[in-house]
Amino acid sequence: MPLQLAPDLELLLREASEEARRRDQASVTMEHLFLGMVRHRETGRGLRALGLDLLTLADQLERFLSEHVPRRRFWHDPTPRQHEGLLRVMQRSILHALSAQQETLRTGDVLAALLREKNDSHAADLLRERGLRRVDLLRYLEHGLSPGEPILQHGKAPRQSGDQQVILHNDHYTTMEFVSDVLSQVFCLSREEAEQIMLRVHQQGKGVAGTYLGDIAAIKAGDVIELAELAGFPLLCTLKPASP
User: Fold this and answer.
1) What does the DSSP 8-state code read for residue 76?
2) How far apart are the C-alpha atoms of 20 and 116, rounded to whole Å?
3) Phi-psi region of 24 (alpha: psi -120 to 50; beta: other; left: phi over 0)
4) Is the pTM of this model over 0.85?
5) Under a CB-based contact definition with an 8 Å cutoff, are residues 132 and 51 in contact?
6) What does pLDDT average to in each consecutive run of 10 residues of the chain (244 residues)?
7) b/e string for 176-200 if b means 16 or more Cβ within 10 A?
8) What are 64-68's contacts with CB under 8 Å, separation 24+?
9) Residue environment code for 40-65, b if the CB has 16+ CB neighbours within 10 A, otherwise e
């Protein structure tokens, strides 16, 4: 099945092109698209949940578009072309979505690709200046976790009583290789056992990595999340009381 654009992303791309045309500018940039995200009700709500000040962002993007994006010359086509920066971000997000076997390309996927831009991206710089990390965006996109929301961390997990199952949750960004490595490293599983559990997580959405006494389970879950954080993956690990 071909990759589909999420309805809000399709709308935002059309609005970005219209914004460039309205300004009589030669190209549609990532900043045009990002400004649309800031203005959009649903996408803006998500950006606000990530701790971003939308009014300030909109003002800075407006100023950038007015001062730094060239206007169309009279001999140019009246339809603005997509800027190479926007094309690069879109291509990266599409390639990731295809490799992750997603059916729909989401606005958040484009933002995740934007945060991988290293140079010549004012939109990416604005996000980084506000302390937004790619892993925080991915946690919100994949698990609905906002920055600062409680999450198991090494040495800070609550005390648990009784046996607890340690459960890994699937997402579109954590690689299968990383999940297998974590299962081998943290849970001392053989390569074959780790790959079996990894496939269960991938195919069924979650899988039990092991069952341990409460405090030991909490430590192992914290270790998983710490390793994922260091690698920049949004891998989620939770605890569930084991059945009697």
Assistant:
1) S
2) 24
3) left
4) yes
5) yes
6) 92 97 94 97 95 97 95 76 95 96 96 91 95 95 87 49 89 96 96 96 95 91 94 94 80
7) eebbbbbbbebbebeeebbbebbeb
8) 64/31, 64/122, 65/19, 65/23, 65/25, 65/29, 65/31, 65/32, 65/35, 66/23, 68/122
9) beebbebbeebebeeeebeebbeebb
